[in-house]
């Protein structure tokens, strides 16, 4: 048993040596070999990718994945802590599993991911949710089998969570959700400590993977037929800072570009670390896709300062314009929080003004949610929730107007799309993405899954496009 501690999670020891190590296989208890498991993942792309590792480790031990909850002998919830509603979803789902356990006493359920790193959540589960069998954290995913084995042999709830700086474990088995587009971690954790955000506490210090390890992974994916990699990090633009004195994201992008893989993407970019060299690398490498997710969070300098974002609106707009002018046909999306503590009507108007000026291709918008132990949770917040919700609604209308406008401009033109599978809504169609990351539902007479094809855009909506496969 080892419990998380938020104060330890906050520590950053610049002199600590953080070593990379190789995944060490642990055999799962014999009683579980051949059993079925179900994994549900919440949250960001990095967590999606962690979900692929959870599946990979279990599969490597002879367990079989099922997508049917009722069939499962082990259920794992890979959780997110970014906002309160992420919590609510998980606790809601746990209630359902409790019911299942009444008729299936040997069913095991475990929790991992960012909620597992939260002290209050783990204490609550220890006291009130005794039917949760095991918990492991973001720092010991590679050792999850030991955590499960301990639960099986002891017959007791087993919690094994560490609030440490973190390490990089290479070679964790993975079962990837898609055969043509793959996630690749490049930098774990985050040291930015934006005042509203829990991620630096749940994911530990910022640590980069070595360029050679990343390149090896990309080459391996290429051999398997992957056409696209998305380089992942909470702030990919800080890549290398903790590891190299002379290598940055720009060098990494060029090195990955040299592998010749068809498409390279990267998320998420913090404006603070975005250098001219990085803009040039994106502009100059043909296989680095023209798409940048560049969260602004607020259009008010006063609020940005309170958020600890370390840039002004003018600096953001300069960077935004630089990317727009240098990277051909680029699309740029953003994240915005409304109702940060003390946000006035005036501050909110500033946010609308920036959105009207930038005309983003899309934006993820959120109402501020106070998170345990973060500085912003202690700020006085006297804006009523209905006012915050009104602001969100108003913002979304403007955001959607601009994404629709950007999409309408594409109608009639032909774009290259990587087809990832069948369309979710209509199985007779395919779905793929343009180079600038627009989702397209595609009509084609051929089986085009896994191919990069030319698509004429016939119709545009706010969140997707409809198109037809055409010959080159
Ligand atoms: N690392 C990324 C963001 C990761 S979290 C970055 O810095 O850009 C994704 C988004 O969730 C953030 O950009 C922010 O808009 C939102 N978010 C994070 N913490 C939040 C909170 N406490 N309340 C509401 N939204 C939040
Ligand atoms: Fe959170 Fe800020 Fe780090 Fe993004 S950069 S993960 S918002 S602390
Ligand atoms: Fe959520 Fe953790 Fe990602 S809090 S957004 S799953 S890093």
What do these coordinates show?
By secondary structure, the protein is an alpha/beta fold. The chain folds into four domains: 155 residues, Rossmann fold (3-Layer(aba) Sandwich); 112 residues, Transcription Regulator spoIIAA; 119 residues, Transcription Regulator spoIIAA, CATH 3.30.750.200; 57 residues, Beta Barrel (OB fold (Dihydrolipoamide Acetyltransferase, E2P)), CATH 2.40.50. 33% of the residues lie in helices and 21% in strands. It contains 13 helices and 21 strands. A six-stranded parallel β-sheet has the order 3-2-4-5-6-7, with helices on both faces. Helix 4 links the parallel strand 5 and strand 6. Helix 12 packs parallel to helix 13. It is globular. It binds S-adenosyl-L-homocysteine, iron/sulfur cluster (SF4) and FE3-S4 cluster. FE3-S4 cluster (F3S) binds next to helix 2 and helix 6.
